[in-house]
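Troubleshooting entry. Yesterday's outputs looked truncated, so today I'm pasting the complete records for two proteins to confirm everything comes through intact. If either block looks cut off, that's the bug. Protein one:
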Amino acid sequence: MDFGRLTAFGLLFLTVGPVACYGAAPVVRARFENEFRCRNNVSVTSLAGNAYRVSGCGRTAVYSCFNPVGGGGQTTWGGGQLVGGYGGTTCIREADPGSGGPSPAASRARAQAESAQLAVRFDEARGATVVQADLDLSPLRLQCLGAPQIDAGRVLVVLSTAGSVFTCRCPALALVGDDTSVELPLSAEDRPADATTIRFDATPEQIAAAAAAFRLEVRCCDAARSVNARQSEVLRQFVARFREIVAATPPVAPPEPPPVPQPVPTAVPEAPPEPAPTPDVAPVPEAQPPT
């Protein structure tokens, strides 16, 4: 399957970057009420940077909220440490309620959550579902693309070097952990003329092995980029979703073989009929002379 068109036009992501106001307010309110046992006269004030100040019962707390993979109020294949259980929005309470914005810890948590995304879209032209995992390995980006209904044994891995000083076109991509090493060869779909994108072939089993590795790194030539815990989780979700679609896809019956041509019997010419037997004729007695 040619994934070039899919990467060119992008996929419909099931996550959103900013947190919608209607999604975060119920989360921070519920979090505050549970933490401070306060349910009367609770007020929520929106601050900069998707932060919220919640006050009530003489207490005040500031929460920073963001949507991890699979958030945005959708029922998706995301996950993570969700607080409040509303639409996949995660909120972290700040250490300093008077700061008026997200703390460094919350900023780091948000950056890690947003460093990986999972997307699923139906490609109408091909009549198949495409699954994509997108990992930000700054300054590199790594994508895993799969169309399990078309090829249940193949994943296209795309390494993008746009915006970086990375110029090496590695002949293979290595996914290396403490107890795992997976080497992915160049794909037949790789385009050497495209200097900022390198394509590799993988199997779902190889991606699953890499996602389960401890301290995973992506290595290309002399460059190595660490994969964080969220990104490993997204790779596991990618494989799980890929396999889920495979299991739900009815097997395609093999085409029936063409009928075996039957030999045409050769007509045997009939033997000519035997001539009818000639009837026996009694011999005519010879005439006797008179005496």
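Protein two, checking that the full record survives here as well:
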Amino acid sequence: MISMNKSKGVLTIVYGKPEYARHAVNLARSIRLRDPGLSLAVVTDLDPALFEGMYDHVIPWEFKEWTGWLAKLDACAMTPFDITLYLDSDMLVFESLEKIFGHFEGSEFGVIGHDVTNVVWYKSMEKIRQVVPSETYPIFNGGLYYFVKGETAESVFRNAKVLHARYDELQLKRNRRMDCDQALVSLAMAQGGLHAAPIVADGSRVDAIWPNGMAVETDVIAGTCYQVEEGVRVRRGILHYYGDAISSYNYVREEMRLRAAFENSERRVRFDALIRLRALFAWLMTPPRGVWKMRAPIERRLRSMRQG
């Protein structure tokens, strides 16, 4: 059991664009629906008023040395909790997070994934094994980290920072031209003999997945999230709206459902058909998606007709 004397909570990071604050608010709302008593903290360089009423701790931070995805490497210094579940702000939660806290109980540092011999983040496994010898290396979704404040977690993040100085030498891949925290944390975990942990509990897979290109059924108010795998519906607990997925119809709809539940009234939530319609219209009218995709070819056709 987690000690009653130890604080626990969820940490997320938001900096740069104000629109990211909106994502963090959606994350907090999805958590509040199922874990209203769980403490939430956001580390940010934005106006604290953007998070008012949703986060128990709004922690100002200057993102100088560690930016982009590497900002997570400062998580130990950022968190106000003894036991922390870090979640990327572009996630939504569909089940109680107590399942994850319970699964990692007794661990000092945890990620959701599995151990493999060949890691997609590394261009040369031969080079990796020369620097960090290990039979396997954890592969996981970097949108979720569990850690207990202490030497183990501090060592993982500290060693990841040290390895970052050799990013190009180690031939680590970049994502969208940015250095990746997963590649570094995986090596740091291997150095410490730590492993990834898949979660399967009560028939529900509580892990962080991407909806891109996947058949996903969601209703954040009802707390249901299913991914279709080879014709079988698999229950999920967390959805990671990574990259373009944050602008998907699925996310826009769930955001509107959350807004209706928290800002309007329970009566408004009952009109879910209207919410779905409004979400579809909003998605269609937002560049560069929906009908906006047809704008350029239509304009080219009209110009050719005028010239002809």
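Both blocks look complete. Sanity check on protein two: Residues 261 and 269 are 6 Å apart (CA to CA).
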